[in-house]
Model the fold of this input.
Amino acid sequence: MTRGSNAAEVEIVEVKDLGLKNPLIIAGFVGAGLVGSIAVDQIITKLKMEEVAYIKSKHLPPVAIFVGEKLRHPFRIHASKKDNLCVVICEIPLKEEGLYSISSALLDWAEKHDTKEILVLEGIPVPGLPTDRQPFCVTELGKCEHFKDRGINLLRKGIIYGIAGAILSECLTRKIEGTAILTPAMATIPDPEGAAVLIEALNRTHGLKIDTAELIAGANEIREKLREIAENYEKATATEPEKMYA
Done:
């Protein structure tokens, strides 16, 4: 086990060395519709990626994640040597005051492994169920045509907040290309369809072959439940007796 990070207040603990060189890094965090974290969790599952490191910091809430009868760290790095790919996943919200330290530590770790590109997956919060499910991207000037040629529209202006924005900002100070792939997502409800849109965009832009059928099935189930809720609400309001006013 090796430890180390140049960023104060953050420690990246490596638990396995797969000997990766120049890996692509994909990151997803808690945000609108949880689309980023759902998407990277699906990538980890489908590629059977191994946990290679986890992040310790006083800026992380003092929690542990319990899934599948096993405890796990909430902020982890998984990797696939076969695909030369790393995935950063964080399943808890992060404190704003720690974003610089954490993003700096992650970029230090990426440089240690000679990473040249980081992709951050993120949702654009919209009210209700999104009707426009196309992916968008924000990237550096030299990468624009690569994404446009693969059907990913560019956002002309805006602000990306939180850890995603911190990572992209930190990329600008280093020799690492930073890109965000985004899609409209339900603001407060888990949105597997939005996660599927992000993965399908990655399949086109970076040659991945991640199946999204399970996510689409989950999205259809959520859509059906939302439809039932709306219908029940309409029935309730339609049969509500008229109020009497004096």
Summary: The first strand starts at residue 2 and ends at 3.
